[in-house]
Design a protein that fits this description.
Helix content: over 70%
Low-confidence stretches: none
Structural class: mainly alpha
Radius of gyration: 19 Å
Strand content: under 5%
Order of helices and strands: HHHHHHHHHH
Length: 209
């Protein structure tokens, strides 16, 4: 499991540069559509890994590519399309939608696994990502002409005035690692079931809102 996570993270980091190039060349909408295809491939590979264990090692490659190809366009679209007068309200509304999904998804996923099994969960996930193709397909085309320069990023890491930003980002990454990897395995070992884990995750998310 640790090797899977390491591969996922390494691919995610290496894919930032190609993703930024693709955003500049093909636009935000197409990159987000590609990320949906990749995430469907990711969950399909996880499901198919029961047929051949070696397939599971292809899954983190697809999963790692999803992150920059989705989240970079997402944040750029939010910054480009938001009205400066209502930016706070629009971002808060998006955050509310995300938090609502984070609250409902774990408990519903746990109940679905305990009643129908993992195949049903994978099919539901793929269905929702297929549905999300529609709003992305009708979204207006965005063109970004801001190139990503790796040298500038690396140079910026060592700038004193940005030290607080990098500490904040590093802490957020460490929190994400614990939440998505260590926490899940620890709680699963203690609780011993997907349904209980899903309920606990939803409850803890409610308390953090």
């Amino acid at each position: 499991a640790l090797v899977f996570y390491i591969i996922f993270r390494v691919i995610m980091i290496l894919a930032v540069r190609p993703a930024s190039w693709a955003i500049e060349k093909y636009g935000l909408r197409r990159c987000m559509l590609l990320s949906n295809i990749l995430v469907i491939c990711y969950f399909s590979l996880l499901y198919l890994s029961k047929l051949n264990l070696w397939i599971v090692w292809i899954a983190p490659i697809a999963g790692g590519l999803v992150v920059p190809f989705y989240w970079l366009p997402y944040h750029l679209i939010v910054s480009e399309d938001s009205d400066d007068r209502w930016f706070g309200k629009e971002v808060s509304f998006l955050k509310l939608i995300n938090r609502s999904a984070e609250v409902l998804s774990p408990v519903l996923g746990g109940l679905l696994i305990s009643s129908l099994g993992y195949p049903a969960l994978f099919l539901v996930i793929i269905f929702f990502f297929l549905v999300s193709f529609f709003p992305l397909s009708v979204m207006q085309h965005h063109t970004i002409h801001k190139s990503f320069k790796l040298k500038e990023v690396l140079r910026g890491i060592f700038k004193t005035e940005r030290s607080r930003e990098w500490v904040s980002l590093f802490s957020a990454g460490a929190h994400d690692m614990v939440e998505s990897f260590v926490w899940v395995f620890l709680m699963f070992a203690i609780l011993g079931g997907e349904k209980q884990l899903g309920i606990l995750k939803s409850a803890s998310t409610v308390l953090m809102v």
